[in-house]
Amino acid sequence: MSGEKLLLDDDEEQDMFGGEEEDVDVPMDAPQPSVKQEETAPPPSDPPEADGRTPAASVELQENGVVASSQSIPATDHHHAVQIEPHLTTSTQVHDTLLGLPTQLPQTSPFSHHNTGPSSDRLRNALARITNDPSRDVEAWQALITEAQSCYRQLLPSLFKLKINTDPDVELINRKLDWIESCYGAVLHQFPTATQYYVQLLEVLLRVSALTADEESQCGNAMGMMLNVSSRNTATHLSNLALTTPDQNVNLSPSAILLTDSMLRTNSSRVALCEERIKCAFRVCLGVNMDGTPALFGDMTADQAATINDATSIDGARTILGGLQCHSMDLWLLYIQKCTWNSSREASSLYAIPQPPPGYIPAQHQASVLHQQYEESLRAVYRQRMDHIKSGIVNSYETALSHGAGYAQSNHTIWKRYTNFVKTWTISVDYSTSLMNMAQFLPPTMPPQSITPPDDPAYMHTTSQKQLSQLRSIYQRGVTHPMTGLDQFWQEYEAFEKSHSESLGTVLVAEWLPKYQHARSVYLERNRVWSIQDLRSRGSLATPPVGFARGDSVKGASSGGVTVLSRKVGSEEESAVGKKMSDSEYIFQMDEERSILSHWRRRLGYERTNPERLANADFDSRVRSSYKEEASLFARHPEVWYEWSQWELLHGSTNPENGALRDSSIVAPMKLG
Question: What burial class does residue 498 get, using C-beta atoms within 10 Å of its C-beta: 0-12 exposed, 13-18 middle, 19+ buried?
């Protein structure tokens, strides 16, 4: 196969995804030497252009299937943009169009403290620095997002007003949320592989889309505090929460089973818009739909996505890049949380609680045949609800495990949560508190006590049998994965088997002991080869290579796998903060970058040896996930994409009809500047 077939079509008129490059504005009052001022794009309300294309904002609404007001997605001419070189609008347009987020920084802020005082000065300074160097000034972007987080926390106590359309503060709250989302939209437009910002954005969207107090509490503490950002500028794992409990969302809450349609009704357009953005974010980041099926963009089908020719189309390129953040455990836990909400909401709509007959008294022997029939129908409804919710949550865990979460960093989190969730299937639940809290949503003819789930010994017996089989499957798969706390996980499995049958447990433990011992040795060996601290850059954003200036082309050869640029020692170059970079600083940053990339090469070389002795399909997924994680951090380094493409071409699956050959057509989606 010729090399040309492995590259996406390069058209001077269009970017990698077929969209024409557009000019953007600069949020500066006076022109700067390094900033170009261009005309703004037409607002979404303008009629279609002469060639029949729809304005960008209208396309976003149509693709998401959401009809939102101009408050929800601000018009282009109402927002000024970070100055981005035209070639940087390539791959980012895929994410921005699908998410429906504004890709331009807002010109004005609805927050009063942004107009005067120290906060105003810091914000203006950050915006000016971002405008000067949007692809390098990581500190300025972090300052902007920190301010957005602070503003979000101020909004938390008043978010409930969004459910009340008649409240006079709704318009102001919407404008404030628009400003916050614009900040995240701008940074993700510039850094579409910034996993930590996707996590933070999804936390905000999930909190706004929560319909019940139970769902709101799962987004944080009483005030819904979002995830903190650690010193490495990555979102802290949900398993190490300072929010609620370590096993948040493990158990099925009583409210999730008792939901009624009246509790889920809302007229808020913001909630509907957030729902669509959440779905699109998971499709872009994890490459899966909410039902667990692979995300195929546009009219792409699974068969078309398996061939290179179809993959070079616009939708094919989107399909290839989908799931670039599948290594993020935070994103998978948020995905499972959202699937839990969806399953509970679907169950409440599909299986309505019947109206109680007159004189029905729960938890008592029913002499009336009518009362007995009602109690039996109530049991049937709750059986269907619990089965539907459990099935949805199990499917979300299995989707996560099969798409990379099972062997990602901190994979012990998802294995432990999965087992804890299944263990709760046979635990008795007290519904009294939840029933009293939801009394206001019930009709007068349906007192809370009358819909209390009756005892169901037969269902509990059947559930215990399913639980035994499910737990055994999880334990046996988990002990074969190198992970933190593997010894404790093995001890739990050993105790689990012997608690049900001493003889059978002894046989099964002896069968799986060698696999556990091999996983343990691989875990210890892997820790000696590389550590996660060695793989993180200081900014953790995909900035251009050190020494590369905007508008330059890559020249020179490769030194140790790091692109050697044309900068000469003794010359001066601007750093991210606008100062001249000295030779010593340049050499230091080059050495640091070379060191990090060499650690990545060491990790990838180790994973390519298949130390876990995985089957071909699992081995391909394991190595591919490592390449995706590296590409997320070094998306502007062409050698990273080149090495990934070479591995896919030479060492990927040999079946030409599957997706591995398709992935060999990957090229760097963003140019350096």
Answer: middle
Structure tokens given for 240: 């190490």
Residue 452 CB: number of other CB atoms within 10 A? 16
Amino acid at 619: F
Q: Which one has a higher pLDDT value, 230 or 653?
A: 653
Buried b (16+ CB within 10 A) or exposed e, 141-154: bbbbbebbbebbee
Residue 476 is predicted with a pLDDT of 96
DSSP code for 234: S
Taking the C-alpha atoms of residue 85 and residue 671, their distance in angstroms, rounded to an integer, is 10
How does residue 505 score in pLDDT terms, banded at 50, 70 and 90?
very high
Digit-coded pLDDT (tens) for 5-15: 333 333 333 33
Cβ-contact 244, 226 below 8 angstroms: no
In this structure, the strands spanning 558-559 and 562-563 are antiparallel
- Pairing state of beta strands 558-559 and 573-574? unpaired
Q: Where are the alpha helices (DSSP H) in 247-368?
A: 254-258, 261-264, 269-286, 308-311, 314-321, 329-350
The predicted-structure confidence for 69-82, as pLDDT tens digits, reads as follows 333 333 333 333 33
Alpha-carbon torsion, ordered 187, 226, 269, 348, to 10 deg: 130
Closest CA to 479 of 529, 525, 514, 507: 514
State the Cα–Cα distance between residues 220 and 241, nearest whole angstrom. 9
Would you call 14 helix, strand, or coil by DSSP? strand
Angle between helices 457-478 and 411-423 (to 10 degrees): 160
Question: Is the pTM of the predicted complex or chain greater than 0.70?
Answer: yes
Question: How far apart are alpha carbons 159 and 169 in whole angstroms?
Answer: 10
**Average pLDDT of every residue of the chain:** 74
Cβ neighbors of 235 (< 8 A, separation 6 or more) are 196, 199, 200, 227, 228, 229, 330
